[in-house]
Structures are given as C-alpha cells and as structure tokens.
Design brief:
CATH topology of the largest domain: Metallo-beta-lactamase, Chain A
Helix content: 10-25%
Number of domains: 2
CATH class of the largest domain: Alpha Beta
Strand order of the largest sheet: 7-8-9-10-11-18-19
CATH superfamily of the largest domain: Ribonuclease Z/Hydroxyacylglutathione hydrolase-like
Largest sheet: 7 strands, mixed
Bound molecules: zinc ion
CATH architecture of the largest domain: 4-Layer Sandwich
Distance between the termini: 10 Å
Number of strands: 19
Order of helices and strands: EEEEEHEEEEEEHEHEHEEEHEHEHE
C-alpha cells in the first residue's frame, strides 16, 4: 500500500505525502516549511491552499479537500480529518484493498485557540508524528501556562519594559495573538506574521485586533518576533532592554532558557505531548504503527505496552 523514500509514498496512487521537494502529486498536511514543496498537483485543505499560494504563488495547482468528504484516486479512497495542529492542518486517512491507513502529520489532541479540533478515525496502520515521544514531555494544562505567560507579560509592561515573544510566523504567532487578545493584551506582529494572520482572518479564524511591528513599539503592546532559526523572516531591531520570552514544548527542558538566551520560556506547543501520543494510539487501535519525527525510543515504548511499532524508514 505504501513505502518510504525520503517521505511517505502511497505506492499505487503515485501520491507523495509531506514531501520537501516538488513531486508530480503531493499531499500537504499543513503549511509548515518542513512539510511542503511546490508540487505539480497539490492535495490539501482550502486553508492550507491559501497559505501555500501565499508562499509559492497564486498559480499553484491545487485540489482542495474538505474534512470528512472522501475522494478516490486510483482505487484509493482518501479522506482528510482535522489534525488540531494549526488552522487547516489535516490527517490523511486512506482505504485500499480492504486495508486502512492513517497518517497524522503534525497533530495535537488538546484544544487549540485557532485550529480545528482533531478527529481520529480507527485504522489498521498508523503513521504518526512523535516529536515529544518521551515521558519527560508532559505539558501542564494550557490555562495554567497561559496564566503564567500573561503574568510575565503584564509584570514586564508594569515595570516599563517591553515584552517580546519569539514565535513561529505561521501557526504559533496567530494562536498567541488570539490567546493574548482573550486576556485583553494587544500584540504587535512582525510583518511576515501579519500577512499570515490576515489569511487566517480571511479564512474565518478570529484573532482579535493586532498591529504590525516595523521597529516602533506601541505602549502596552507585546511584540511578536520570529525565533532566530526561522530564516525566511528577517528579525527586526528591538527596543533596548526588552524582555525576551520563548513559547515552545521544549521549554520543559530546564536548560532551554539558558541555551537560547531568553528571560522566560513557556511550554505551550502545537504538537501532541507524550500522553496525547499514547492516547492517539489507543483511540486509533492500529495493528501496526510507524513512528516519524521523534526519538528512536518511542517505538520501543509502544512495544513495551503491547503495540507492534517501528520507526518509519526506507520501505517498511
Ligand atoms: Zn507543523
């Protein structure tokens, strides 16, 4: 039914899944750089199509897929389900010759402020993203983390300093904007984030009002700036004496804050944590599991609790 050759390939359908180089026909689960490329024909949700065209140009050929509405390619029945990772993110569910396969892409089971809630169909085979596949990564409730973030932001503003939150341009920046707005805090976004935020709003996702940061801080606002590793968005000069905050699942590592030179780090993420990964497996009830994007030991842990699991590698 499928094989692995730099990415997951649905063999008889000639469909590549989340390939990072251009293919004849590629499914793109969501609009993050490590899951997309300009394919000759792209299959994705309408929101992802909007974000991909923003990145690759309006001429991109896309077949738009709606959640829960099956379609057929070469006798394969394909259906997409919300992945809960970012707006428009999708899992791919495939039925072929009496067998079913679920590819999760990046996903999250806990509630998101901006993404559609994840849905998990049962499947014979499960190809799952396992970024936080270590028991060290169990995230506290989002309400608790947001309360700590808000406390730090308000304290910084009260002290006359400028809070700067580092966030990825697509997905994380929009979710933070919405979460902070719900708490009555206004944001100033990097221009690259603002253009993505407008696409979110055009897709019906309410973020609340935000301003664009072009080097001039507005009193009472939090500046959202891309992290240093994000090459496509040039970082802008920041006010002197600003307080830098990171928002990532890796913040659970006590060394994170020092390693990245930030004043605060909060474990808020758009990925499933360890317990959500286990919950995913228990709900999908697969006979066989293939793990990607995570620690090598996660497949062993699944085996310890009775599942047939292995890392996804060349031609499983
Ligand atoms: Zn992602």
């Amino acid at each position: 039914m499928f094989h692995f050759d730099n990415c997951l390939k649905i063999t008889a359908a000639h469909l590549s899944v989340d390939a990072q180089t251009g293919q004849q026909m590629g499914f793109v689960s969501h609009a993050h750089a490590d899951h997309m490329a300009p394919h000759t024909l792209t299959l994705c949700t309408s929101v992802t199509a909007r974000l991909l065209r923003h990145r690759f140009g309006s001429q991109l050929r896309v077949r738009e897929l709606a959640y829960g509405e099956p379609f057929t390619i070469a006798d394969h029945r394909l259906t997409v389900f919300p992945a809960g990772h970012m707006l428009g993110s999708a899992m791919l569910y495939l039925e072929y010759a009496g067998e079913s396969l679920l590819y999760t892409g990046d996903f999250r089971l806990r509630r998101s402020a901006t993404a559609e809630p994840a849905e998990l169909p049962q499947a014979d085979r499960l190809v799952m993203e396992t970024t936080y596949g270590d028991p060290r990564y169990r995230f506290p409730p989002r309400e608790q983390v947001v309360a700590e973030l808000v406390h730090a932001v308000l304290g910084t503003l009260k002290a006359g300093r400028v809070p700067v939150i580092e966030a990825y341009v697509t997905g994380k920046a929009q979710e933070l904007t919405r979460l902070l707005w719900e708490q009555g805090i206004r944001t100033q976004q990097h221009p690259a984030m603002a253009s993505v935020s407008r696409l979110y709003q055009a897709s019906g996702c309410e973020l609340g009002p935000f301003s664009v940061y072009e080097g001039q801080h507005l009193p009472g606002h939090v500046i959202l700036q891309p992290p240093s590793g994000q090459r496509r968005a040039r970082r802008l000069p920041l006010p002197s004496g600003c307080i830098r905050m990171a928002v990532t699942g890796w913040a659970l590592d006590p060394r994170y804050r020092f390693r990245h030179g930030v004043d605060y780090a909060f474990p808020l993420t758009d990925h499933a944590d360890y317990d959500e990964l286990i919950e995913c497996v228990e709900r999908v009830k697969p006979r066989k599991i293939y793990c990607t994007h995570g620690p090598a030991g996660f497949a062993e842990r699944l085996k310890d609790i009775g599942f047939d699991a292995q890392p996804l590698k060349r031609t499983p």
